[in-house]
């Protein structure tokens, strides 16, 4: 198995892409921390499914935009598993395509807090433990909105551009110390978070989805396969790279 005996934290893992990544990692031998921020019911159900299939996982509640929550999540991981090999900064929220003039400071702070400050905090507190092992992998979830406009509103697009910058800087600062950092940049992926948007043919994103070379939206399991590749030694020479998995959205 590609991740045998590795310890992985997956933020925002109670549904969607995070859930798919957590399950894929567990299937490949990783011990998984399933992070959630609201109800524990869904996270615990994922943990139960992983353990019934012979894997090992725990659910840990933490708001990734809050430093103390992140510290406690890292500490619980170390207490349970003794190390951190892989960090997937997946937790993210949308801003309903809100343009800059209509973006309140509250909305801005909330989007930036989860989407950009979250990966910063999780990386900040996980990296010291990776340095002790002289090896580690950080995978940040950005978006096509990290490359182009139109994939979200002002706050969302700014946050996802920022995630790519953070990823590159982590790779630059820590690559020679054994830590690889890369970013996954999905296009339109069918998850519970995007379900309502994808039902609405008038949504701005729908016109783009219909025109991408793939001619469809993507699925969380496809993102999980890419995450597995980036988490494994198969991608050992890939550092600081934002990888598009968008059905050709940006290539149009």
From TrEMBL:
Gene Ontology molecular function: oxidoreductase activity
NCBIfam families in UniProt: PRK07231.1, PRK12826.1-2
Pfam families documented for this protein: adh_short_C2
Sequence similarity: Belongs to the short-chain dehydrogenases/reductases (SDR) family.
Keywords tagged on the record: Oxidoreductase
Family matches, as SUPFAM superfamilies: NAD(P)-binding Rossmann-fold domains (SSF51735)
Protein's recorded name: SDR family oxidoreductase
GO process annotations (BP): bile acid metabolic process
InterPro entries with a match to the protein in the record: NAD(P)-bd_dom_sf (IPR036291), Sc_DH/Rdtase_CS (IPR020904), SDR (IPR050259), SDR_fam (IPR002347)
Keyword flag Oxidoreductase: yes
């Amino acid at each position: 198995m590609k991740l045998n005996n590795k310890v992985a934290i997956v933020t925002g893992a109670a549904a969607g892409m995070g859930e798919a990544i957590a399950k894929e990692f567990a299937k490949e031998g990783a011990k998984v921390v399933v992070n959630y921020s609201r109800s524990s019911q869904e996270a615990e159900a994922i943990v139960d499914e992983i353990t019934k299939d012979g894997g090992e996982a725990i659910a840990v509640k933490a708001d990734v935009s809050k430093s103390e929550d992140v510290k406690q999540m890292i500490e619980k991981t170390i207490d349970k598993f003794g190390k951190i090999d892989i960090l997937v900064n997946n937790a993210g929220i949308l801003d309903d395509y809100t343009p800059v003039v209509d973006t309140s400071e509250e909305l801005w702070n909330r989007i930036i807090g989860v989407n950009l400050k979250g990966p910063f905090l999780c990386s900040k507190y996980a990296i010291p433990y990776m340095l002790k092992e002289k090896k580690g992998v950080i995978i940040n979830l950005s978006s096509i909105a990290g490359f182009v406009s139109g994939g979200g509103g002002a706050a969302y697009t700014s946050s996802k551009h920022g995630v790519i910058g953070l990823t590159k800087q982590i790779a630059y600062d820590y690559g020679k110390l054994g830590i690889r950092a890369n970013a996954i940049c999905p296009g339109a992926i069918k998850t519970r978070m995007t379900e309502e948007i994808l039902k609405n043919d008038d949504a701005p994103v729908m016109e783009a989805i219909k025109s991408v070379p793939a001619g469809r939206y993507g699925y969380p399991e496809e993102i999980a396969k890419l995450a597995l590749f980036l988490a494994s030694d198969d991608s050992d020479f890939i550092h600081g790279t934002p990888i598009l998995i968008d059905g050709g959205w940006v290539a149009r």
